[in-house]
Amino acid sequence: MTDPHALFEEWLAEARLAEPNDPTAMALATADSAGRPSVRMVLMKGHDDRGFVFYTNLDSRKGGELAANPVAALLFHWKSLRRQVRIEGPVEAVSAAEADTYFATRSRDSQLGAWASDQSRPLDARATFEGRYEEMRRRFEGGEVPRPARWSGWRVKPERIEFWSDRAHRLHERRLFTRGGGGWSEGLLYP
Questions:
Q1: Which of 51, 61, 106, 138 is deepest in the core (most CB within 10 A)?
Q2: What pLDDT shows up at residue 1?
Q3: What is the pLDDT of residues 35-86, one digit of tens each?
C-alpha cells in the first residue's frame, strides 16, 4: 500500500474498536522560535489527504509556538494494538468556516469554556475561572454561542508518516512514508 492516509484510516478504525479511551488522542510536539520543544495531548478532530486537524485557543502556548514556528509532530500511541503512528510536517490554520462548523458541534459547556478560558495563562484561583464561566453562561443564555475569534484549528500537513508495529524481542516493523515530487514514497526503517 502506498497511500499512508488509507493505511492510517485502517489503523484508526481498528483503534476505535480496541482502545478503551480516546483513540483520536495524539501527542502534539511544537517548538518556540528558539527551538525549545513542548509536547501535550490533543484530540484529532479530522483528517484527510490535506492533513490532521486539531482545535485550540490561538493565544495558548501551542498556538503561539505554531504561529512563531509553523511545524509540528504528532504521535498516536495505541497501546492495546501495540502500534504507533508518527507524523511530521508544516502546519496551516484551518478556514474560519471549518472552525465555525466544528465549534458548533461542541457541547455548550465546552463552547462557554472556550470563551471563559485564557488557555495556558496563569490563573490565580479556580474560582476566577469558574466565575468567568458563569459570566459567559449568563451572557449567552437563551442563544447560540458563537466561536470566539481566538479559538480555531490547525492542520498538520504531513511530509513524513511512520507506522510502527511492535514485534517480539524488539524486532519492530517501521514503515516510513515520505512526501516528495507530488506523491508518497514508502520505505522501511531499522527497528
A1: 51
A2: 59
A3: 999 999 999 999 999 999 999 999 999 999 999 999 999 999 999 999 999 9
Distance CA 177, CA 179 (A): 7
Catalytic residue status for 170? yes
Q: Which domains does the chain have, with CATH numbers?
A: 4-99+150-189 (2.30.110.10)
- pLDDT for 182 equals 82
CA pair distance 74, 60, nearest whole angstrom: 18
Cβ contact 172:95 at 8 Å:
no
**What would the pLDDT profile of 114-125 be if each residue is shown by its tens digit?**
999 999 999 999
Give strand ranges (E) for the chain. 25-31, 37-43, 46-48, 51-57, 71-78, 83-93, 151-156, 160-165, 173-180, 183-189
User: Residues in the chain, how many?
Assistant: 191
Is 114 strand, coil or helix?
helix
pLDDT at 2 over 90: no
Contacts of 126 (CB under 8 A, 6+ apart): none
Which is catalytic among the residues 170, 174, 175, 179? Answer: 170
The three three-digit cell numbers of residue 22, written as one number = 480516546
